[in-house]
Here is the input.
Amino acid sequence: MKSLRTVFSWLLLCALVFTALPVQAEGLLRNPALVQIGVIDALLAGGYDGSVAVRELPRLGDLGLGTFDALDGEMVILDGVVYQVPSSGQVRRADPRVTTPFAQVLPFRPGKSLTLPENLGLKDLEAWLDKALGDTSLFGAVRVEGTFTALKARSVPRQTKPYRPLAEVAKEQSVFEFSQVRGTLVGLRGPDYVRGLGVPGWHLHFLTQDRARGGHVLDLTLGSGTARLATLRRLELLLPEAGLGGLDLARDRTHELKAVESSR
Here is the structure.
């Protein structure tokens, strides 16, 4: 009898374990995902042909960043609106028919608003966000509303074939300098292990409060502001139907990415 009870208990435990597994998987799949179109090393290698239409992006999330077909400016997704910052620096709503070769978008579900320390530089801000985020082995997202004592942003001109590597194109970037400007930072943070796939560390884009100017952030000094952060445990990667053939994806482009991200 005791042996029978032991067998029954073991069978019940197994049933509970195997029943719980799908439930746990379902719970994970209900978590918001960072959806990424393309890979950063393909962009660095000159893969600027778009594969997903802009009109699809708000269906995937309401916050994000990226670029456009032929590298035609910087992308900022804010409140479900896709903004385009061309090399002129004059922001416009992106044409929904235009495509993107690289973008990251998510349904933004942040925690409470946090007051930022005053007079933070870019590196100090990133360090503060890391500490507030907690676990930097996960993906992170932030929306910062603030007044910036100074901010430097950039965009790049639309390219024509044959495409040159991004490090060469960045040398021709347009740089915009702002002072005492109010606006919004949209930022995504990749863990260190996404090298080649995405951008390790913080990647920040900016829009002025009137949504008229902006770009990829090169440097800043924050006067005052607030931040709302979210972490993500899921990454969904969408690759172009035609694949990424013809691009040199074997080499280590870490130094190229650092140069492009911080190019002054």
Remarks:
- Confidence is low (pLDDT under 50) at residues 1-21.
- Helices lie at 2-30, 40-44, 57-60, 122-133, 166-169, 254-262.
- The first strand starts at residue 33 and ends at 37.
